[in-house]
Amino acid sequence: MVEPGLIKAAQSGDRDALITLLREIETHVYRTAYYILNNEQDAMDASQEALIRIYTKIGSYEEKAQFKTWIQRIVTNICIDKFRRSKPTVSIDEHEMVFREKQNVEDEVLSAYALQDIRSAIDKLPEHHRTVVVLRYLQDFSYNEIADSLDLPLNTVKSYLFRARQQLQSLLHDYQKGGVRG
Amino acid sequence: MNCQEVMELMQRQLDDDLSDAELEVLMNHTRQCPDCAAMLERMKRLSAELTALPKVTPTYSLVDAILPELERLDRLASHTSSAIESDTGITAKAVSEPRRMPRKRRWATWSAIGSVVAAGLVAGLFIVNDPSALKNSLADKMSYSMEHSLPEVEDTSTANLFRQMTPTSGQSDLETKSFDKRTAEGSSAGGDANSNPEAGGDVSIKGTSNNSSEQGNVTGIVKDQYGSTVEKPGESDVSKEDHPGMGITSVKEFASPDGRFIALLEQHTIAIVSADNGKTVKQTSRKNGQHGQVAWSEDSSQLTYEVQLDRGAAEKYVIETSNWKEKKATH
């Protein structure tokens, strides 16, 4: 998404190139922050903080990592810090929740989930699970790219993503059933 | 293959991670198992919904909003790096990055003078105070890893150094003043309308507060704490002109009268750090509402602050420094 030439120029001290680069990535940075923090103002703050950090740390970026995973690493770290500071710790539902609602599937109406429900379900995920989902769906990252961004083993990424999707699925299913009844 | 194992295949299928053979296994299973077939449909639908989440964009240019802060960092960077390189030689490698070089050239006209003064000042401080302690704290600040440090940390640490030391080092007092002046000049020379005249190495990152009278107060208090004599009439007027939406996470500092603690005002919380070692001794619980009116009692035994709630209401809180208990005060 960002020209390698632009990154090189920015690293070699071309301030205009660095500013141009920041402009190119600001939406990507913001989008991640927005879905992790689930709050526009916090997302604005976090992404500005991330952009400032990218500005000051551009010299430490090494080409062996993908640039996009490098910036996502910065913004997710800031968001997770912020998230921890602003929220009481969310207890993580690590135990099995597979096939909790195998029954009743047949009478399920296949209507679209309300956007609000999806957002609120994402908000219920523990921070790392949520972050993995955001990188997978908002940044369109592969397992490997997510692993690089979060400095997690590949298997952990998969297990977070799978568990997160399962939890989302069951939360949304509950919402939907609640909606039908109420 | 049991349903549990099939679940993993379903998950991987959502990410296009299945081989043809694995896909075959999955399809064979779902043909015979209605539960899994239904689950697969639901997971697919979830995945499609997640893919379709709105691609939100910021409501204003974030880069424009941080430009003043970036300029401030540039100025500070040329000060800190040259001061450290010339004086201690420690951790300088960690902070001097390639891109700094052209930056120095850009500001060469005045930063040369400024950094000489800064270097002199730092040198003075090192003599006055216990050098090992200082070096350690400096090294700590500098070696903050990328993942954990705020970008401002390096800079405020320098600011802290200057402020902490000024009262004890009489002979460098004069230098501090001229240093401040140069910084202020530097910022106007930068030609940036949004940067604050007092912003060279001091606190003042402007927040999103609409309460301009409060900001005026803040500026006043901060200047008192610094003991700086760079008086600029109409300075608080300048603060008022700041766009309310332009702020980044605002951090404002309030040193206790006895100099032992610094209260850091963040958006929804206040942290009190020890002026000696920078350790956080108290972090207030997050409260929704604009924090302000931060004030130390004269004997430094209490810190009071207010939280602006909706519809003009405000809550006042008092923190006792003896036990770091926080309680709601009656007005």
TrEMBL record, chain A:
Belongs to the sigma-70 factor family. ECF subfamily. Residues 24-87 form the RNA polymerase sigma-70 region domain. Residues 116-168 form the RNA polymerase sigma factor 70 region 4 type domain. GO terms for biological process: DNA-templated transcription initiation. Keywords: Sigma factor, Transcription, Transcription regulation. The keyword Transcription applies. This is RNA polymerase sigma factor. NCBIfam families: sigma70-ECF. GO terms for molecular function: DNA binding; sigma factor activity. SUPFAM superfamilies: Sigma2 domain of RNA polymerase sigma factors, Sigma3 and sigma4 domains of RNA polymerase sigma factors. The lineage of its organism: Bacteria, Bacillati, Bacillota, Bacilli, Bacillales. It comes from Paenibacillus paeoniae. InterPro entries: RNA_pol_sigma-70-like, RNA_pol_sigma-70_dom, RNA_pol_sigma70_r2, RNA_pol_sigma70_r4_t2, RNA_pol_sigma_r2, RNA_pol_sigma_r3/r4-like, WH-like_DNA-bd_sf.
TrEMBL record, chain B:
Residues 166-218 are annotated as: Disordered. Residues 3-37 form the Putative zinc-finger domain. The chain crosses the membrane at residues 107-128. Belongs to the zinc-associated anti-sigma factor (ZAS) superfamily. Anti-sigma-W factor family. This is Anti-sigma-W factor RsiW. Keywords: Membrane, Transmembrane, Transmembrane helix. Residues 174-184 have a biased composition (Basic and acidic residues). The keyword Signal does not apply.
